[in-house]
Amino acid sequence: MIKKKQITPDAARLKMADLCARSEQCEYDIRQKLQKMCIPVSEIDNIIDFLVERRFIDDTRFAKSFTNDKIRFSCWGKNKIRMALRMKRIPSCIITEAFEDIDEDDYNDALWKAAKSKAKSLDLLDYNDRAKLYRHLLSRGYESSLISSAIAALRTQQ
Questions:
Q1: Residue 125: what are its φ and ψ, rounded to 5°?
Q2: Do 26 and 90 form a contact (C-beta atoms < 8 A)?
């Protein structure tokens, strides 16, 4: 059995500061990483306070970045993004603020891209294939009214 090398709280603080400098991180993720390093809870709170004071961690900035990235690169819908942010313990007010910054054109482009990609392998004249596309887009987190509009538009193109 391999034993983990014990890390000091100061070394953990520097390691987390380095991680946060390289990429956006939320408080929950950093707290989880520190717990895996077997850092005592009181020290974890001190490290988190240090990182928040120096703006290494900012949940608002993280939520906006996460939302933007998931729409642009993963073609996720608002429902899936909201659930992912809730799992990271981001407060609802911050999620709402992040959603206000979403560019509707980018959001619709992401939906269209996801719909066209899945529709390539389907016959949209068949009800079962349309239902399959609908369920796929619903699982990606898109709203049902937008999905219906996208499927109707794709169906007229076919």
A1: -80, -20
A2: yes
Q: Does the predicted model carry a pTM greater than 0.85?
A: yes
Task: Enumerate long-range contacts of 74-77, CB under 8 Å, 24 or more apart.
Answer: 75/110, 75/111, 75/113, 75/114, 75/117, 75/140, 76/110, 76/140, 76/141, 77/110, 77/111, 77/137, 77/140, 77/141, 77/142, 77/143, 77/146
Q: How far apart are CA 21 and CA 122, in angstroms?
A: 44
Query: What are the tens digits of pLDDT across the range 75-116?
Result: 999 999 999 999 999 999 999 999 999 999 999 999 999 999
Residue for token digits 């850092």?
Answer: 39
Comparing C-alpha atoms, which of 14, 41, 19, 40 is closest to residue 29?
19
Amino acid (one-letter) located at 72: R
Q: Which of 96, 97, 88, 19 is nearest to 51 (CA)?
A: 19
